[in-house]
Amino acid sequence: MHPWVNGNKWFKLKYNLLEAEEKNFSQLLTFGGAYSNHIFATAGAGKLFGLQTIGVIRGEERLPLNPTLSFAVQQGMQLVYCDRTTYRQRHTTELHAQLKERYGEVFIIPEGGSNLNGVRGCTEILPEVGDFDIVCVACGTGTTFAGILLSLTHKQRGIAFPILKNGSFLQSEIDSLLQSYLASGLPTPNNSVCTGELICDYHFGGYAKINDELLKFSQQFHQTHGIPLDYVYTAKMFYGVMDLLQQGFFSKGDRLLLVHTGGLQGNLARDQSALRIEQRLQER
């Protein structure tokens, strides 16, 4: 995969990019926070495929730009800052109409690539996982998890770890994506949905929130296994799985697959409080 568009981000963008090309759009418009992997990947994809990109960013502009937004601008993305009240309307046809009136013909990709195109792409993440009983993944919008649930067999199950505080609301979002996808006639690997559950106890305070314990775990995991984890998503999921293993949550003999969804660019864009935490750890 290309370093700009990797992990689950490529799978969520793939069919959105194909549809935009088929419909002769030259501009992509999408939504995200200031540290969004999706914003980063969309900007990179736009540069690679010769498409103009517009990123509607939640919150006010803060200078200097963090590494995520700085990269996006370097790839030609136009950043539009949006107050949080307006941003909550990002799924509405009214706001979409306003944006199209302002920026012309744009192909709109939802925040995080969370649409049926995104789900379709995510059904291709695990083309063959016959040797595993349980597949674990971090969860932000539920799109990746929905795609994985569609690709597993009825003998397998999926576990998602929401990185948002009070993430149980994602269950209804995931159910809605699955129902819409199954009704759409789009390709489904197994023509069914395997069992899935959310474990909401490992958010560490919410989106992009981290603490000493999570940072220490991530650093030790990297040192031990040679696998870097991003602090926003995969570190929380890996931590959760390791903790559940110690608690005896899984049955003896269960074969687990942990999906690393990329997003390592986010480690460069942590806020200053996180950097201070890491500095304290290094001083110990």
From TrEMBL:
Single GO MF descriptor: D-cysteine desulfhydrase activity
A Pfam family the protein falls into: PALP
Superkingdom of the source species: Bacteria
Record keywords, A-Z: Pyridoxal phosphate
Record domain Tryptophan synthase beta chain-like PALP: where: 7-262
Residues annotated as the enzyme's active site: S36 (nucleophile)
Gene3D superfamilies: 3.40.50.1100
Listed InterPro entries: ACCD_DCysDesulf, TrpB-like_PALP, TrpB-like_PALP_sf
UniProt modified residues of type N6-(pyridoxal phosphate)lysine: K9
Coiled-coil regions listed in the entry: none
A biological process term (GO) from this entry: alpha-amino acid metabolic process
Cofactor: pyridoxal 5'-phosphate
Family: Belongs to the ACC deaminase/D-cysteine desulfhydrase family.
Name the record gives this protein: 1-aminocyclopropane-1-carboxylate deaminase
Organism: Nostoc cycadae WK-1
